[in-house]
Specification:
The chain is mostly helical. Helix content is 76%, strand content 1%. Strands 1-2 form a two-stranded antiparallel ribbon.
Length: 316
Amino acid sequence: MRRFLLNRVSQTALVLLVMSLVIYTLIGLMPGDPLDMMLASQPGITPEAVARLRLIYGLDQPLWLRYAHWLLAVLQGDFGYSRSHAIPVWAVLAPALWTTCQLMLISFVISVVLALVLGIVSAIRPGGWLDHAISFTAFAGISVPVFWLALMMILVFAVQLHWLPASGAANMGDGGVLDRMRHLIMPVATLALANTGGFTRYVRASMVETMRLDHIRTARAKGNPERRVLLIHALRPAMIPVLTVMATNFGTLFSGALLTETMFAQPGMGKVIYDAILSNDFNLALSGLLFATLITLLANLAADLGYAWLDPRIRL
């Protein structure tokens, strides 16, 4: 197991290094540079001043040399400064990371638990009325656009019933944890409902296929209770393909919840990365995309470890 873990960690580090080079190169090849917007606001600046600024910021160097300097600084914990915020990049990313982690982890756990319960119940009697009802609900969840779901939740729970705040983060001061929870309910519910349908379909399909295998009939023939057959003998092998989908979705959720964060005015990673790209804030956009890549790789690493735990043969 130790060799398996070391092998996967080394592969993750190598992929992260390659992806950092790809992201840096793509951002560096975008039209303009970080000084363009600064120079556009000062039309009277002299060419000598422009050349001096490019020298100070290192923009006169080749792209590969700038990448080497940036990588060395990142390894030392220096992610540079955000041009649009005029503060260090980490000072911008830290609150966005915290907001996204709250939204992502809570909604992901809720959607996984719901998908496991609904998928197992649906797979017990495939083709029955309960299976059809769960499948219809899952397909409806997959088909509903996220922005429409967010709008309906705002319209019902914020505008009509006045139960929850429509958008924004927790108020500073007296609200505390309860205020933060009230602001998280609708965005978390939106993300959870948007992902539960797809997860449920994968869990059901994998469980139905696993329940037809020989070792399930053998476990029942030995007199094992049906609950043990479902949760031990069927669920563990059935979760192997489902883990792949969940790991991929986990990484996408980290930086791809832009619509939800925008609809509910949650300053998360998706909104920060999007605004950084629009404002040509290269350091912030690069660091945000790199963190999103890191989370995706860690999610896939966790899935690989989950494979090895579910099926010991994979360790070999």
